[in-house]
Amino acid sequence: MCCCCCCFITEKLSRKMSFIKVEPSSDFSFHNLPYGIFSTADNTKHRIGVAIGDQILDLSVIKSLFQGPILSRHQHVFDQPTLNPFMALGYEAWREARRTLQVLLSANEGTLRDDVSLRTRAFVHQSAASMHLPADIGDYTDFYSSRDHATNVGIMFRGKENALMPNWLRLPVGYHGRASSVVVSGTPLHRPSGQMRPDQTKPPIFGPCKQLDIELEMAFFVGGGNRLGEPIPIHKAHEHIFGMVLMNDWSARDIQSWEYVPLGPFLGKNFGTTISPWVVPMEALLPFAESNPVQDPEPLSYLQDPDPYTFNINLFVSIKGQNMVESANICKSNFKYMYWTMKQQLAHHTVSGCNLRPGDLLASGTISGPEPESFGSMLELSWRGTKNIDLGGGESRTFLKDGDEVTMTGYCQGDGYRVGFGRCTGSVLPALQH
């Protein structure tokens, strides 16, 4: 195969089948091809892989097959322990890589299909792999972009008449989080300790959080960055969005409610954030783009963009307690419920001249919809602890208990295939002694 022809691959090719068997229910269809970082027992080096079906294609083994005009000069990026160097190459390099992969994995292409030795070295079964953080995350920003979530929380704490703050409908509200405590799916986290004030008539106390919560979120990795002082215009924002992951923004609600005035979350958020290991490229998600939400009042000009960049991604959250045989689903939501788009978030983040770098992580904020079953946090599902969340078998929750395992999943449903994100899982360990 002449991979330099990869730039001329048509969308028709992407609809053909791969020689790798993929079940219709698999998250990792030929239409997906997400990137991740993995290792194996016999090769502990962290390396870049692409998921398809139940297999991982090791790009470090086939790096010489990337012979397009950009990647032929940068094949070394596929031999790195993180995705950062690849993401730094920019939008056209990502597109070239995807087209090359579509050719190599196509049922009509024999380069991998017919070379038994190369296939043996290049493919690893997912069950034999350990997954790692996909990037070296330099900075992490969390937005607050679901109108339903912001309204629900506002009603709980300020009342219906003052649910949304005056700035919320004017700009994508966000805060800078803690990049060092972002962990990959499967990493357990200790219940945090901190100051709380459960009785407003008494001084604060110190101890383990009693209102540990989850937040159903998604996040995107920044690819090509921008120079300090040079904003990214919204019509160019898509060229800086590499791909998306699922995210659980664990939250200590009682710590957060005491500390957050006036500067926002601190210890209530910084103890851990979990992301799924596979980064789904934006090109795989574009067929599932929908019209952007109607925004009233109309945003300022730097936030206006007519191109659809809202995505129909089905999202689910389940909890499995220590005494439970099976997980219980507590939430069914959708990314399309978001009010502010990723392009608006990126444009707003950089309009001040803030420089983003490859590997920076920007999160959506809790994804809640209009119906109670679509609320993306236990704070909302239990309505600040006043309602029990039924898990079945006599189990219920208002907030998380030690030993609980939380799993988030998500996928776009195509015609006989899925573009999914795998699992974003984490469990709660007891608080450390102080």
Helices and strands in order, then pairings?
Layout: H1 11-14, E1 35-40, E2 43-52, E3 55-58, H2 84-88, H3 91-104, H4 110-113, H5 116-122, E4 123-125, E5 129-132, E6 140-143, H6 147-158, E7 174-176, E8 182-184, E9 189-190, E10 193-196, E11 205-208, E12 212-213, E13 216-222, E14 241-248, E15 251-252, H7 253-259, E16 273-275, E17 280-281, H8 282-285, E18 289-290, E19 310-311, E20 314-320, E21 328-334, H9 342-350, E22 361-363, H10 378-381, E23 389-392, E24 395-397, E25 405-413, E26 418-429
Parallel strand pairs: 6-22, 8-16, 9-26
Antiparallel strand pairs: 1-2, 1-5, 2-3, 3-4, 6-7, 10-11, 12-15, 13-14, 13-22, 14-16, 14-17, 18-19, 20-21, 20-25, 23-24, 25-26
Could you explain how this protein is built, in words?
With 434 residues, the chain is α+β, with helices and mostly antiparallel strands. It folds into two domains: 22-132, SH3 type barrels; 140-429, Fumarylacetoacetate hydrolase, domain 2 (Alpha-Beta Complex), CATH 3.90.850. The protein is 16% helix and 28% strand. It contains ten helices and 26 strands. The strands form seven sheets. Strands 6, 7, 8, 13, 14, 16, 17 and 22 form an eight-stranded mixed beta sheet that branches. A five-stranded antiparallel beta sheet has the order 4-3-2-1-5. A five-stranded mixed beta sheet has the order 9-26-25-20-21, with no helix packed on it. A hairpin with a 2-residue loop joins strand 2 and strand 3 (55-58). The protein starts with 10 loop residues before the first helix and ends in a 5-residue tail after the last strand. Mean pLDDT is 95; it is low at 1-15. Belongs to the FAH family. Pathway: Amino-acid degradation; L-phenylalanine degradation; acetoacetate and fumarate from L-phenylalanine: step 6/6. Ca(2+) binds at residues 142, 215, 217, 249. Its cofactor is Mg(2+); Ca(2+). GO terms for molecular function: fumarylacetoacetase activity; metal ion binding.
